[in-house]
Structure formats: structure tokens, C-alpha cells
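A further point concerns the way the authors explain their paired sequence and structure data. For illustration, here is how one protein appears when written out as sequence plus C-alpha cells:
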Amino acid sequence: MSNGTSSSDKTPSFEKTWGSSTSSGYCSEEDSDSELEQYFTARTSFFSKTPKAKVNANVKQDEKTEWGKQELTTADIQQKIKEYNAQINSNLFMNMNKDGSYTGFIKVQFKLARPVSVPPPKKGRDAGGKKTSGVKRRTSFYMPKDASKHLHISSRTSAREVIEALLKKFTVVDNPGKFALFERSEREDQVYIRKLSDAEHPIRLRLCAGPNEKVLSFVLKENETGEVNWDAFSMPELKNFLRILQREEEEHIKQIVQRYALARTKMREALAGSTPG
């Protein structure tokens, strides 16, 4: 959000800066012969192979942190901004506005397990000047696990608006309700994760916690509620998930058949080489 945030609370503007790029592991509809193939990605398995027990042992769900409960006066905010700016070695400063609001930068890491969808390419012209027909279907791809983005926002910017801004910048057409913003903190060799409510203000948490990413960082993840909400996916996405499951099932069957065929061959070789009695 730029410094002109005082003009409107309901229509915030965002200024974004980042250095990473989008994933190269996606498949466009133009490279596909099948309508369902548009959602096929480089992911080899539909199911995550991350050992959940290990993850759960190291990451705990946390209650609202102390800095999220602090009540700040204008004088407190001015002092914290001064202390914050004195700790950073970049130009990502926080600034106080005349109307009492303040602006600054937050860094958001992407930890998405499922693909995101982007709109099809727009119609254009080929090398000969002829109009090309735009693809009507969407493209889906996996975000890089190490991707991160900086957003310049205001103290009036909510967590929901941060999510919407990130999706808009990547032209992601998925429902923002599929995603949630989390705060991540490290304390005593333990990682704590807490889901932010839509109305919380991330820049306020950043100011109270200070610039140290170990003390507080922001993560964009799927909005998990315990089970996958299949109703939130479009029909092409659901068909594609079934297609991936079918491919994975066929691969498992192939491996099992090959394993038993190899065992059968070795048994026959052993029988042929053995002497009766």
C-alpha cells in the first residue's frame, strides 16, 4: 500500500516488490491434446509423501502471540517504528502517516501443496499478422516451495486483502477462500504456526515483533479445515485429480506385476537348476 492510504479504507492499493519467479513445472493447454490434460503438472504423485508424524512433532499450532494482543498508542507506534527502522539493513523501512496510519513491508512465503490456476492467454497475432484464437481453458501449475514475495502495505490492510493482492499479482483465479495467511515463529527450538483471521493486520504484527524473521514470518498456505473441501474445486480440477489418481494407480499396479513376475522368474530358474531328491 502506498503512502496515500488515508484516502480510502475500503479500496486499498498495493505496491509489491519481489525477486523470485513462478514455477516452470506447468503444462499449458496449447501443449495438450486432451481437455483434462490442461491441469496435469510435474507432480509425480497426487498424495504428499512428507512424513506427517515428523512435521507434527516439530510444528505446533499456537494461540495468538503476545505482540498480537498489544494495544498501541500513537506514541507507542512512533517509538516502535523508530526502533524497527534502526534494526534493518535494507530500504524496507516503516513510515508514519499524518493520519495516524503507517506503512511498511511484509515478506510472505508460499507453502502451497496444491496447484493454482491462472487464466488462459489472451488472443493475439502470429508472426504473419493473423489473429490467433485464445485458449479458453485455464492453466494450472505448482508454485515453487521456496517462493516469497514482499508487499508494501498499510496498517489498515487486512490479512484477507494481503491474500487477494498476492493472488492478483500472480493472476491466480482460484477463490481466495482456498487460502489462509499464517504467522510462523520460532521459540526455544520449537516452531509455532497460527492462522490469522481475515480481519487481522499483518503489518501491525510485523511492527510489534520486529524485523527478525525467526521471531515472526508470514506464510501463505491452503486454508485447511481438517479435510479437503472438494466442493471448493471446479469441475475440471476435480476431473484432473481423478486423472492423476488413475495414473498413480496404474503405476502402482505395473510395479506390483513386475515385482511378482521377477520373483516368479527367479523361482523357475532355481527349480530348473536344482537336482531332484
User: Anything to note?
Assistant: The radius of gyration is 25 Å.
